[in-house]
């Protein structure tokens, strides 16, 4: 009896380690925590300006540090996960996220905020690159699109719940508890990943290193990069400028604007797993990606032409579905590019880097154009860009893939 119980425990742990569904749950939890804490800061950050005696522009710069760190560290973290395994990077990333969140709660200077935001961005680079690579390692390639879609849905859930949780915690639990409670949750998720014996791929070190730019796949990689940057750049334009447009045209309150963005997030939550499932079963990357970008351009035009707030919200919902259809297929396509080289960490380090480029470039491009064009013209220019990119992407993937 004394040896039977440990044997059963080991058997159970091995089953969990071998279960792709268990891996999916862990990765979803990790991504959800990252995005929930990212969103939690949105209603709290405005409090820092009067608290620390700085302008809102400084707070905006601090907010943008996250994307900068994601851009700088995603590829190094992905490559590191190829060397040491996925789980150590995921655990380290979650513990860094807990540290950064706690540091926000005790920040009394701008230097503290910069340090906290920097650590938060580095932690995201580690968890996203290693977590998505872990899914690619353990999932049947024939179902990878659906699994990636489910994982990305955690982004939408975290985006919706984060600001709500931040506002409620700040109002009812106080400033410090607003950060310490999520910090404890992030640390708990990291320890949960540490407790599960996840079987991960580890590439042997040596003179034969997998290339970051695999020969024979550069055009496929470039096509994926253009699509990812286009999708994330669209979010980068809509996130800062749609609230301004809604307030100017419809006198929308902050709560109403929040509802419109919740509609965008819900659309992504629903559409991403479905888009992945369609890609797994039927392929058709040229139709999903090209058609998705074209539909996104049309939805952007519809949002600008809508004469009422409900019609605008409906167009935003279509936009969320369209962007999901375009984005999700790029994830299994990247896995295919790097699978033969044994470097899924590099694949999703590249994905994060492309996404961060668009997320950073979108607001910058909008800021440059805002001084010359009215907001509707900026959005219509974005719609034209999405339409052209959709046509070119459809043609490119039609030639590059046989799916």
UniProtKB/TrEMBL annotation:
InterPro entries: MFS, MFS_dom, MFS_trans_sf, MFS_Vesicular_Transporter, Sugar_transporter_CS, Tet-R_TetA/multi-R_MdtG-like. CDD domains: MFS_MdtG_SLC18_like. GO terms for cellular component: membrane. It is a multi-pass membrane protein. It is found in: Membrane. Keywords: Membrane, Transmembrane, Transmembrane helix, Transport. It holds the Pfam family MFS_1. Residues 23-401 form the Major facilitator superfamily (MFS) profile domain. One of its GO terms (molecular function) is transmembrane transporter activity. The chain crosses the membrane at residues 21-45, 57-77, 89-108, 114-136, 148-170, 176-198, 218-238, 244-275, 287-307, 313-335, 347-371, 377-397. This is MFS transporter. It comes from Methanoculleus submarinus.
